[in-house]
Design goal:
The chain is an all-alpha fold and 269 residues long. The protein contains 13 helices and 2 strands, in the order ααααβαααααβαααα. It has one domain: Penicillin binding protein transpeptidase fold (Orthogonal Bundle). It has a two-stranded parallel ribbon with strand order 1-2.
Length: 269
Amino acid sequence: MLWRPTEQAALRMSGPRAFSSRVQHLSQPLRGPLRRHARGSIMVVLAGLLGLLALVVVALQLWYLAHIVWWRSHPPANTSFMRAQLAVLRAQDPNARIAYQWVPYERIAPHLKRAVIAAEDANFTVHEGVDWDAIEKAHERNQRSGKVIAGGSTITMQLAKNLFLSGERSYLRKVQELLITYMLEAVLSKDRILEIYLNVAEWGVGTFGCEAAARKLYGVSAARLSVPQSARMAAMLPRPRFYERNPGHPGLLRRAAVIQRWMGSVQTP
């Protein structure tokens, strides 16, 4: 605030106390209507930012949904996990490539379909994307062991993560995984979900999908996989790179044997 010379002179003539009092009065915080106006402006800005954030979130969900609708009749060209793995490989070799070959559902051995359902999601054909009972049981197992030994994720949840997300563990990522899971279940049939999952799942370093994995591991197409081969491939899914390096690991052999016993009672979509 600018003071006129006459005002400054009058204040000084009235003494230093009056001059000091006037300065203190002018420097006090905003009061009354001015303070309310400032608060109102802040609230308007915050509301605008929240609205913008909501629009971004909605736009992101629509982007996910558009891809899922497209994949009803088209195979994914790649996935988030494929891109991440390729980036790692190309940091070591600029010419590195991902082994990935799409095959239709009818050209995947029924043995592998049953083995993967038995190993990863026994209730796949009956739940709506999330198996809450399995998640609760996994939580109880983890509590008893004192560490994470089970996740409870369904095939649909794993597919949501593989297609769009990363391996990062956070509550925000988990919420997004659940939203995508319900989108997949709403838009795609069960056999289409399983078809995409089997075609994009990781089975070793740079190896994605059952066709590339079957040819790399056994020298056959996915259509010609035997019961033991299918059980062993399903057993690899939780730790594909580790089991690729350690094909004779006791844990892999035990898990494959259990899966092979369970396969006979599994229904496929």
